[in-house]
Design a protein that fits this description.
This protein has 137 residues and is mostly beta strands. The protein has a single domain (7-134), classed as Copper Amine Oxidase, Chain A, domain 1, CATH 3.30.457.10. 9% of the residues lie in helices and 49% in strands. The protein contains two helices and 14 strands. It has helices at 48-53, 109-115, and strands spanning 7-13, 18-21, 24-27, 37-39, 42-45, 57-61, 66-71, 74-79, 84-87, 90-93, 99-101, 104-108, 119-123, 128-134. The strands form three sheets. It has a five-stranded antiparallel sheet with strand order 3-2-1-14-13. A five-stranded antiparallel sheet has the order 6-7-8-9-10. Strands 4-5-12-11 form a four-stranded antiparallel sheet. The longest helix is centred in the last third of the chain and has 7 residues, at 109-115.
């Protein structure tokens, strides 16, 4: 996937509770100290700050235990404990389901980011994740 025009960048590291968004350090889960973690080979994290950094939004429906992510003209709906979801209104699935860990809703980063139009790169030697997205500013 190529991203044309101006781009935004987010850099984060496993077990570190901050990220760098276009050169500025920000908390991943403000005030809570939550960091990305790896579970079953997938990076999970509370995704709100990442999505909001690219001018998107995240909504939580407690009754359905549903997370709705909207960014870059795309939408992803996921449910806690379910591997099925919707992407832009179409059914999809993943091999790991969102879950609640330490009272935080943790979503699979690569799946969500790529499905809202980002490129995601894993740097294994430093356990870092780079997200590149079309800059909407």
């Amino acid at each position: 996937m190529a991203i044309e025009g101006k781009r935004g960048f987010i850099l984060m590291q496993i077990d570190k509770d901050t990220m760098i968004v276009n050169g500025a350090v920000e908390e991943i889960d403000p005030g809570r100290g939550t960091a990305p973690l790896i579970k079953n080979g997938r990076t999970l994290l509370p995704i709100r700050a990442v999505i909001e950094a690219m001018a998107g939004s995240v909504n939580w429906d407690a009754g359905e235990e549903k997370v709705s992510v909207t960014a870059l003209d795309h939408s992803v709906d996921m449910w806690i404990g379910r591997k099925d979801m919707t992407v832009d209104g179409n059914n999809a699935s993943i091999d790991i389901s969102p879950e609640i860990i330490n009272s935080r809703t943790m979503l699979p980063l690569r799946f969500v980011a790529e499905n809202v139009g980002c490129m995601v790169e894993w740097i294994g030697t430093s356990r870092e994740i780079v997200i590149v997205y079309p800059n909407v500013e």
